[in-house]
Amino acid sequence: MALSLTVLGTASPHPRPGRPCSGCLLRGGGAQVWVDAGTGTFAELQRHTDPARLTAIWISHLHADHCADLLAAASAYAFGGMTPAAPIPVYAPQACAQRPAGFLGRPDLGFLDGVLDFRPLYDGHMVQHWNLRLAARAVAHDAEAYGLRAGCQGSVPAYSGDSGPGDAPTGPAARADVFLCEADLDEHREGERVHLTSEDAGRIARDAGVRELLVTHVGPALTREAAARAGAVSGRPTGVAREGEARGL
Predict the structure, then answer these.
(1) Confidence class of residue 89 from pLDDT cuts 50, 70 and 90?
(2) Strands 238-240 and 31-35: what pairing?
(3) Which pLDDT score, from 0 to 100, does residue 71 have?
């Protein structure tokens, strides 16, 4: 198995009992990458790996349901005995570096020296850890936000992050083996284009030619069953992401 994707959280915009917010773990090619640190995902991460052994952390955008558990990770690494052998790269929008310092009342990031290494994302950003490649693509949201396309030994998972409808999420998803895509809305409100409906997710998956669609970030206006409406549009095998589920690619 070249690559695996383990779902850590799927809830939006806040965690629910047994359902942390957005996050997953990519493992393959000698690397382990925590993708989105939504509220509650750090605890779930520990079910599947030692956080001190992560190769990298990748954050799509700075809304709490995608990044808040960086605070938990920073506390664990700096004060909780989970010190990594080398600083863990954190790929995220530029302002991310100030979040842990602010939450913990620190004037700067000096207390994280030696444990986290913040590196800014940008459209087209690419990095490779061992045999796992990570590529960022800017998507439309009400904050700086990115989708992710990963690759390892011919396997390609993709992730929408939070995105409005349009062509942007199609790029990372093109011919992906599995596309982890948000479906936050039941329907669009007038002028609102910062999240996707189930039908949007299905259309993007269809247009991108993905092999499988996995719906996540199911908003409070949708049930998990309603999110499966995406499959009627995608024409692809479609499921709803569930915590603890692991997919081999």
Answers:
(1) very high
(2) unpaired
(3) 92
Tokens 């080398």 sit at which residue? 86
181's CB contacts (< 8 A; 6+ apart) are 159, 160, 169, 173, 196, 201, 204, 205, 213, 214, 215, 216, 230
pLDDT at 244: 97
Among residues 194, 196, 217, the alpha carbon closest in space to that of 141 is found at 194
With CA atoms as reference, report the closest residue to 218 among 238, 240, 202. 240
Helix (H, G, I), strand (E, B), or coil: what is residue 123? coil
The C-alpha atoms of residue 172 and residue 96 are separated, in whole angstroms, by 22
Q: What is the C-alpha separation between 118 and 10, in angstroms, rounded?
A: 25
Query: Could you tell me the residue ranges of all domains in the chain?
Result: 3-248
pLDDT score for 224: 66
Which CATH number applies to 3-248? Answer: 3.60.15.10
* Range with lowest mean pLDDT among 164-173, 184-193, 219-228: 219-228
Q: In whole angstroms, what separates CA 37 from the centre of its chain?
A: 7
The conformational region for residue 13 under phi > 0 = left, psi -120 to 50 = alpha, else beta, is: alpha
pTM surpassing 0.85? yes
Would you state the pLDDT for residue 228?
A: 73
- 167: CB partners within 8 A, 6+ apart: none
